[in-house]
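Q: I'm building a small set of examples for a reading group on sequence design. Run inverse folding on the following structure and report the sequence directly after it, with nothing in between.
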């Protein structure tokens, strides 16, 4: 029992010294930490980093919603009357109906690489980029009145649309290579072909225009510079793998091949190496000056900001939406990261409530919010948690990605020490007390 009394006396002495030390800490830690007006200004201007959107480029790329305009490769069907008072005897041979009936008969023309079709007697006529009604007027004017006495009736329609291959990767239901008709070359049509954006949503959409060396290969690249390129591997129009690498760098090329073979055991190293070298050779003389991608934000979770026109060989990448969170740290009941749903706004009071609120025993006095500005710099603002400032917490907006730190001041640390000291533990060896 004597040992117990001595131990209790020692504990009282330690407690007395600790109490004095804690009081000194409280006296030195009571200066205000509230942010200045300048700090608040910088803090309020900061927020989640969003991708830069070239509005001018986006407007230029925005899809043309007027009448269809003919493109190279289209097959046009012209309905022209066979019963005409022919001025030229040669013209009647060209227009002799296939069926033997002298009424309106269809004639087929493919739009050449030069954007033209070749009409009987008249010769070449430029039609690429023109509306069907414009082509009809051109044909009528070409024959009347030079070759025919009566004004002919001509009807032009597209018998078969030219198709182009585009690639859709990332956050879509069915990523892959798709052929779009010339009247379907738009972002929305491509997304519909790929089954739409996944249910979880997308953060943004990038469209990388293909350079001229991209061909119908199992492997294709969409940049020709010495920088890293997007290499897409496909089989039977299904995307197997895609990655950014530099095909001119031997080590990076070997790493790409190794990774691809590991993912798809039936891929042959030699075939991949040969195709990559072919792409490298084709890329030598191709400029990448027009390889800047188009970046589109997403409205809601899965609606593109705008529908834009696509080109042959374009690569559309849907960036998956990373779940947004805010984090609460420090002397709160349940610190951690909490989801920040889309189209929702939280204030500081609500954020603290998610974490169970500040520890009432420790009674912290300040909370600091850290966030990133547009330059990537961390900015912060400190607010009070006493009664004077508590009402203000409901007006302070929390942004996705914010880190909320309930601060440990000298007074808070002193309370922790006191709590530990007042938690008396009897840890004596009972054998020694007997």
């Amino acid at each position: 029992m004597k040992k117990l009394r001595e131990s209790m006396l020692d504990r009282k002495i330690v407690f007395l010294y600790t109490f004095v030390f804690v009081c000194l800490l409280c006296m030195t830690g009571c200066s205000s930490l509230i942010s200045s007006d300048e700090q608040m200004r910088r803090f309020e201007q900061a927020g989640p980093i969003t991708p830069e959107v070239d509005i001018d480029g986006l407007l230029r790329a925005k899809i043309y919603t007027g009448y269809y305009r003919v493109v190279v490769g289209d097959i046009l069907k012209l309905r022209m009357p066979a019963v005409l008072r022919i001025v030229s005897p040669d013209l009647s041979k060209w227009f002799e109906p296939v069926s033997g009936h002298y009424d309106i008969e269809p004639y087929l023309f493919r739009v050449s690489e030069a954007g033209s079709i070749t009409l009987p007697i008249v010769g070449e006529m430029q039609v690429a980029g023109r509306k069907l009604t414009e082509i009809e007027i051109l044909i009528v004017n070409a024959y009347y009145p030079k070759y025919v006495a009566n004004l002919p009736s001509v009807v032009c329609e597209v018998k078969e649309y030219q198709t182009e291959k585009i690639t859709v990767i990332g956050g879509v239901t069915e990523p892959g290579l798709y052929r779009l008709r010339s009247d379907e070359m738009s972002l929305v049509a491509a997304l519909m072909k790929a089954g739409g954006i996944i249910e979880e949503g997308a953060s943004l959409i990038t469209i990388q225009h293909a350079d001229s060396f991209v061909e119908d290969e199992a492997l294709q690249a969409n940049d020709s510079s010495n920088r890293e390129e997007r290499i897409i591997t496909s089989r039977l129009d299904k995307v197997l793998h895609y990655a950014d690498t530099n095909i001119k760098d031997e080590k990076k090329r070997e790493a790409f091949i190794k990774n691809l073979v590991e993912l798809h055991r039936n891929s042959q190293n030699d075939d991949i190496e040969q195709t990559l070298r072919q792409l490298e050779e084709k890329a030598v003389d191709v400029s990448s000056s027009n390889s800047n991608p188009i970046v589109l934000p997403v409205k809601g979770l899965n609606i593109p900001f705008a529908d834009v026109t696509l080109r042959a060989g374009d690569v559309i990448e849907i960036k998956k939406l990373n779940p947004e969170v805010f984090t609460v740290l420090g002397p709160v009941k349940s610190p951690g990261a909490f989801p920040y749903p889309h189209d929702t706004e939280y204030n500081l009071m609500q954020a603290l409530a998610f974490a169970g609120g500040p520890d009432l025993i420790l009674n912290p006095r300040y909370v600091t919010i850290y966030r990133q500005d547009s330059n990537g710099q961390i900015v912060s603002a400190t607010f009070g948690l006493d009664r004077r400032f508590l009402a203000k917490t409901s007006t302070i907006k929390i942004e996705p990605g914010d880190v909320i730190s309930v601060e440990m001041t000298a007074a808070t640390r002193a309370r922790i020490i006191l709590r530990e000291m007042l938690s008396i533990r009897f840890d004596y060896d009972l054998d020694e007390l007997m």
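The radius of gyration is 37 Å.
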